[in-house]
Structure formats: structure tokens, C-alpha cells
Amino acid sequence: MEYENQYRLTPRPKYDCLLFDLDDTLYPISSGLQRECGKNIKDYMVEKLGIEKDKIVELSNALYKNYGTTMAGLRAIGYDFDYDEYHSYVHGRLPYENLRQDPLLRSLLLSLPVRKIIFTNADKDHAKKALKKLGLEDCFEGIICFETLNPIHKNTVSDDEDDIEFLGSSVTRNDSLKTPEIFDIIGHFANPNPDVTLPKTPIVCKPQESAIERALKIAKINPQRTLFFDDSVRNIQAGKRVGLHTVLVGSSQRPKGADYALESIHNIKQALPELWETDMKSEVNYTGQVAVETSVTA
């Protein structure tokens, strides 16, 4: 018994990985980026897709509600466009100057002795810019983004465990000269027909459970030992259904599907002190540049 006590192993930490959403999770909604993103999406629909202005609000709401992102919904109902062009238009004019360096969050993240990965619906350029503005570009092992989940070619993962890259390509378009037929989603809900079902989207994104499962597979993550942070109740609930432990960020009210709720990401140490209760190395540094593949936010 004496030897057993002397050589007793330290209990294994509960979590091996922390999976973080980016927008409105690692920075507050008060930054205004989400509002401007929504405006840019509506402008794109009018200017690039020729959708009537008076239909934009109702249409974008229906697409977001039923497909998770407006972009995924637009592709589902028949609009064809270049993904890079869409991201450039929607995110290229965002007020990134509203984001400020966050040394407190940086210190908290670097002191966490477990894997940390970004999982966003946004594109890689947006993720890189946002993380750099926040001063968090070297706090994560990698980034799972739109390009990661929607590649032309098979995703590959770097053989270097210290510098994981989730690779992919964002360009996916139908070069057919035939004008696509647009599904009338507004009419579908106004006059339901039991014989007609909503078309499926070719875009993989949260809150689809398949998107979360793909992200876990790409990053080799065990959902039972992973804590997932997101500001979207839908995303949190989808994560819970695939086995993740979940944290809703941006609210003190804990909805169904959330194990924890944080008013701000800065409250992480007060709410989850057990993340620091380990004999592992007290600081994890990622010296390589953050590898990014993004998903679309709206």
C-alpha cells in the first residue's frame, strides 16, 4: 500500500481539447462585425445575385433558419456563385479596426495546458485577420474553417504534430451555362406541399451535425473529451448531440444542450477552474503561424 500511494498516477484531466468558435465568441458582439457582416450579405444578394431588395430580409431569414448560414441556403435553392468572391465581398469590408488586442484572453489561452482549436463557419482570410487583430494568432494549434469543411480535394493534415494545418480549397462552382432554377423557399412555407421537400445544400457548415463530426475527424478529436465554446444555441445543441461537452458564450442563461454558460469568454477561469487543475506543463505555446481553413459566419 505504501508503494501504491507513492507511485499513484496523477488523475487524467477531463478534457484533451478545447474547440472554440471565433466570431462573437472570442470577441463581443458589441464590436459590430456581425451587424456589418449581415448588411454585406444582403448587399451581395442584391448586387451580385439580382434578388429584389424588398425580398431580402424575409429570404435571408428563411435561409439562415433552415440552412444554418445564408450562404448555404443560397446554394441550396439554386444560386451559383464563387465562394471566394462571396467571402471577399462579405468579409472584405468589415470594420476590423473595431477589434482590439486582448492581452487578458491571450494570457488565459496560453496558460491552458490542452489542445486549442478554432472551429468557425467563416473563411480563412477572415479568421486570420480577426485573430491577428485580437493578438491571438499564435494561441491555437489550428483552425477548422469553411475551406476545411468544403474542399475540392481531400483534406490533408500536416505530419508535424506541432504545426497542424487543415488544408482545402474554397473554390467550388458550377460552370454550366444553363441558368439554374431557383427554388421558391418563401412560397414553400407560405403554401406548404407535403410532396415537396427543401433542397439540400452542398455546403457543409455548423449547425449540421455532419459538419461537426467532420471537424472532429479532421482534427482527430474525441468528442467525449472535448469542450466546445460557441455563441450560437443551435451550434451548441448540435455539438451536444454528437457527444461534445458544451459552453454557450455571451449569455449567463444556460439553455438546453449547454453544460455551461459564460457571459463573456473572459469568465472562463472563474467558471471552469478545473481546466487549469493539472500537473501538466503550465503553458502551451504554438510558435508556428496559425493554419487556417474557414467557414462562413452568416
TrEMBL record:
InterPro entries: HAD-like_sf, HAD-SF_hydro_IA, HAD_2, HAD_sf, Pyr-5-nucltdase. It comes from the Eukaryota. SUPFAM superfamilies: HAD-like (SSF56784). Pfam families: HAD_2. This is Suppressor of disruption of TFIIS-like. It comes from Gossypium hirsutum. The lineage of its organism: Eukaryota, Viridiplantae, Streptophyta, Embryophyta, Tracheophyta.
